[in-house]
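Below is one record:
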Amino acid sequence: MTLPTLRWGIIGTGLISSWFVSDLVETREDAQATHLIQAIGSSSDTKAQAFIKEHSPNSNPSLYSSYDGVYADPNVDIVYIGLPHVFHKEACLQAISHGKHVLCEKPFTVNAREAKEVFEAARQKGVFVMEALWTRFMPLVRQLTQIIHVDKAIGNVHRVFCDFGLDIDLDNLPDSSRLKDPALGAGSLLDIGIYSLTWGLLLLEDHPPDDAAQPQVFSAQTLHAGADIATSIILSYPDSGRQGILTSTMQTKTNPVFARVEGSRGSITIEGVAASLPGKFTVFSKDAKMEPVVYEAPKSPGKGFFYEADAVALDIAAKRVENEIMPWKETVRVLEIMDGIRERGGGHFPQDD
C-alpha cells in the first residue's frame, strides 16, 4: 500500500513546534504516512532558518517571516499551530479560511466558545481540524484503556488519581510570561492540568466520548495575580460511584508515578517523565498468587508526536473532517469542564468576556 503524504505548514517556532517537527522527520518502520515539512512561519527569517537547520536539516521548506505566507502557500495541505493558547483561535480561523486542514496544539482554544467558533468555520469549509492532544494517540495509552475497559484486568474501576506538577520559579518570570499573564491564558489548568483531566476521563469512562455520561465536577484553584498556580478537580459519576481526583501545580514536580487506577480486582500505576508522556504502567492483582505485570511503551525514535500526525494523515486521506479519538465534541466537552473550573476558582481571561 502507498502511504498517504501530508505537506505540513508549521506556525510558530517554539519548543512544542520543535518537538513536533523533529518527530515528523524521523525514519520509522511503523510509519503510517509520509510527512513533509513544506513551510515554516515565524516572526523572522532568522528564526525560521535556525529552526529548520536544527530540527529538520534535510528538509527544504519555504520560509516565511509571517504566518500569512504559510496560510496562502498552495503547496501546504495542513497547518500545525504551535503558538501560545490565546493565538490558537485566530490562527485556526486564518488557516481554515484558506482551505487548509488544521492540527492545533492543546488547549485547542482558551474556552469552549472559541472552539465552537473554529469548528463551525471548519464545518462550513469542509476541512479537517483536530486538537493535538498527543497523549491520547500513544500506543501505550491505547493499550491501557483496552486492558481497563475491555479486558477488565482490574475489574470495575472505582477511583483514579492523577497529578501533573512542575516546579516553576514564577517569581523570577516577567509578568508578561505566558505562564503568568491571564491575557495569555496563563495557569496550570490549561497548560498541564488538561492532561490530568484527560487521564481521568480516559480511565473512568468505558464508552466512547460521544456517549459519555457527564460527570459531576467539583474543583478548587489557588490563584496568583489572576492565574492558577494549583488546581484540584474531582470527577464524580453518580451512576457508577466512580471518582477521579485530578491535580495540577506549578509549585512542585510530580514523582515518576503520576497516576493510579483502583478497581475491584486490582490496581494500575502509570509512570513516565510527565503525565503527558507515559513510559510504562504496572497491573497489580488483589490475588496474591499473581505477580505484577509491567507494560512498557514501544521503543521508537523521537517523543511520539508522529502517532497523532499519522492519525491525521489517515483521516484526511479518507476524507474525514474529524478524528474518532479526538473528535470535536470531546474537545468542546473538556473545554467546558475547564471553563467551569475557572469560573468556580475565580480565574478569568479577557477572552471570556
Remarks:
- The chain has two domains: 5-133+305-322, 139-296+333-345.
- The longest strand covers residues 227-237.
- The chain has a mean pLDDT of 95.
